[in-house]
Amino acid sequence: MHAINKSNSKEGYLDKKMATSKNNFSKFLVLWSGELISAIGGGISAFGLGVYVFNMTGKASDTALVTLLAFLPCLLLSAPAGVLADRYDRRLMMILGDSLSALGLVYILICMLIGQGTLTQICIGVTISSVFSSLLEPSYKATVTDLLTKDEYSKASGLVQAAGSARYLISPAIAGALLVYYDIKLLLIIDICTFFVTVVATLIVRSNLASKVEQKRKSFLREFKIGWKALNARKGVMTLVVITSVITLFIGFIQVLSTPMMLGFTTSGVLGAVETISASGMLVASVAIGFLSLKSKLVRILSASLFCAGIFMMLFGFRENVYIICIAGFLFFAMLPFGNTCLDVLIRSNIDNEFQGRAWGLIGMISQIGYVISYAISGVLADKVFTPLLVKNGLLASSIGKIIGTGQGRGTGFLIIVAGMFLCISAIILGLNKSVKSLEKKRV
């Protein structure tokens, strides 16, 4: 009789645990839905502002400046934002990040409504929005850890990436259609409204999830150092983050150079279609991962996916052929979610939950330094070094030019090929690194 009661008690505990896990995943889906809507809204306003600035000034450099100001503050502030995510209620940080980032867009909208909306005002607005958006990412990722079990991490990561890819697939189509009949003001209003949806979704999750108990607070700098120590506690984690920064450096080349390479031989309409098809690879793979569960051989999958991404990068720059570029672009972007998911699970599983916010802030800052470098140097390298090599009578026109072709965009294509080669090399180094391999063994 005692054995039966003990068995029933154990079964009841397991049933309760499964019910709690299912309920928490439902809460995650509510939170994810809000961030999906936010991503679509952000993509709509980003597309609209890019078109507006280019039409206003006629300079690609001004459009690039707005993009840079929308990226850099969020990157530079990600580490201190991570400290705040561990220091205060993470759901509250998400609400503040979402709602206050709308202030920048409201400022731009007001300027346009009173007949201004200059480049300077737009730069100020996107900077304000980026500063407050920095509060969101570390808190969001740490909250995912709060809600889910380790077995659910990979599924959640796939869904998070699917939401992120929506701004590149859904937003441009919506924004482009609206701009035919309306102006940029409507796009800004739509994005501002999406903030209310995401705040409500976060409030729903927050009201049903207990806040973590606050310990005695240390100084801000002290907590930052604790986050740094947590990141360094396992050598493999820091090694993985550093290698990731190198990988983002090479991936950044194709992000920046795909447009000038294609405009060297085709129209902007074809370019838009190719970008949509290419980005759909990321969406398809992210959704697939959402239904799969990557639990083992993560380092091997990570290395293989990045190696294949490098191969497809080389194929992307190989020929001025739209069909080849579409196939290569689709497969390249399809590889990224697998790599991102493995990175996410490996890091998330090897850092204590209480340090997750600070850790993700530092990880975001370090890993994306590669993008900043590639954005800064890729255009200069393409224009000043690689393009002259493959124009008519260029130094490499009679050698490499016979294989990949010559012309205005072929130097840019060659640079993408070189970056893809280095990405393959980085993937091999990552897969052979013993400290990175040890992370999978230490997962619990």
How does this structure look, described?
The protein has helices at residues 2-57, 60-76, 78-87, 90-113, 119-133, 136-147, 153-181, 184-207, 220-232, 235-263, 268-291, 298-316, 322-348, 356-367, 369-389, 401-404, 410-432, 434-441. The model is unreliable at 13-20 (pLDDT under 50). Helix 12 runs antiparallel to helix 17. It is globular, with a radius of gyration of 23 Å. With 444 residues, the protein is mainly α. 83% of the residues lie in helices and 0% in strands. The longest helix has 56 residues, at 2-57.
Short overview:
This protein has 18 helices and no strands.
Query: Would you tell me the structural class of the helices and strands?
Result: mainly alpha
Strand content: under 5%
Average of the residue pLDDT scores? 76
| Rg for CA atoms | 23 Å
Helix and strand run: HHHHHHHHHHHHHHHHHH
Q: What percent of residues adopt helix (DSSP H or I)?
A: over 70%
Count the E strands.
0
Largest sheet report? none
Provide a count of the helices: 18
Distance between the termini: 35 Å
Basic shape: globular
Query: Low-confidence segments, ≥5 residues, pLDDT <50?
Result: 13-20
List keywords for this structure.
444 residues; mainly alpha; 18 helices; 0% strand
Strand and helix layout:
Elements: H1 2-57, H2 60-76, H3 78-87, H4 90-113, H5 119-133, H6 136-147, H7 153-181, H8 184-207, H9 220-232, H10 235-263, H11 268-291, H12 298-316, H13 322-348, H14 356-367, H15 369-389, H16 401-404, H17 410-432, H18 434-441
Helix pairs in contact: 1-2, 1-7, 1-8, 2-5, 3-6, 3-9, 3-14, 4-5, 4-6, 4-8, 6-14, 7-11, 7-13, 9-14, 10-15, 10-17, 10-18, 11-13, 12-13, 12-17, 15-17
